[in-house]
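Handoff note, outgoing to incoming analyst
You'll be picking up this chain. Sequence as last confirmed:
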Amino acid sequence: MLRFEVSVEDLLRSRFALSPAMDLCFLLRALAGRERPLPRAWAARLLPEFERLRRESELDAVLALHSPRGGPDFIAPPPRGLSQTWADDLAVIRATPWEAARQECATAATGPLARDPGVRAVLDSPNAVSRIAEAMDRAWHALLGPDWPQLRAICERDIVHRVGVIGERGWATTIESLHPSITWQADHIEIGHFPHAGTVRLTGAGLLLIPSVFVRDLAAHTEDPWPRTLIYRARGTAAQWGEQDTVPQPDALTALVGRSRARLLLALDAPASTSHLARSLAMTPGAVGDHLAILRSSGLLVRARSGRSVLYRRTPLGEALVAGSL
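Most recent structure output, in case you need it:
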C-alpha cells in the first residue's frame, strides 16, 4: 500500500496540472500493448500510423525506454501547471543533458527491444536526446495532437469539477473520489492500488494531481525530480472512448430538447465553459453558445463567472430533467 503522510501545509500547496508528454507516453504504451487497451475504434484508427512510425522513424528507441513499471523521467518531465503544452514538454526533453539521459537510458532500456542493434545505436549515440525528442514529436503530431484539444478539454473539466468538490466538501472527499482504493485518514492518504509502495512524506511540498485520459487506473511519482504525484483517470473519459455501457442513452431527453442540447445537458454533470464544451463534444463554439442560451432561457442552466471564464451548470430543473431521462 502506498501511504502519503499529509499535513495542513501540504493541503495548502497541493495543486493540479496537465501533462501532454505523460499522456503521449501512456498512448504509446497502449499502442505497443503495454498499457490499458484502447477502444477498438481508436486502435483501428491509430495502429496503422503507429506501425508506420515504427518503420520510418526512431520510435522504437522511445518504446525501448518503457518498462512494465514506467519509463525515464526525461521523456515525460514534470509539468509546471495547467497551461502546459506539448511545445513546453518538448523543449524540456530537448534540453536534457546527455549525461543525465544516458544514465536513465541505461537503467530503463533493459528489455528485448533495447537489444535491437538499430535501437541500441540510437540510445548509445551522442545525439540520442535530440533523436528521441524528434521521434516523440513525430508521434505527437501523428497520433495524439489532432485529438488533444478534445482530450485536454476533458481533463480541464475534470479539474473544474474537483476544485468545486474541494470548495464544497473538502480535500478528503476530493482525494477519495479519484479511485476506489484511496482512503483519507487523519494525517495520511492510503492507496491500496499500490500494494508494495511504502510510506512517502510530502514534507510540506503538497501533492500534484494530474488527470489523464489514458492511464489505466492510477499512477504515481514518489521520487525526484517529480513532485509527489498522483495520476488518475479523468471524468468523462468513458464518454470520449464511446464505452456504451457507461454512456447514458437519453432517448426521451433527445426527443424533448434535441440531440445537441441533450448532449450539452448531459455533459454538464460538472460546471464547464463554452470553449470546454465545444472542444470535448467536437462542436463549434458558436453552436454551443446558441444552444446554451436556449437552455438557460428555459430555466435548465445558470451561468456564473469563475476567474476569466463563464461556467454553465444545470439548475435543479435541469438536474431533474436529466435524471428522469436516464
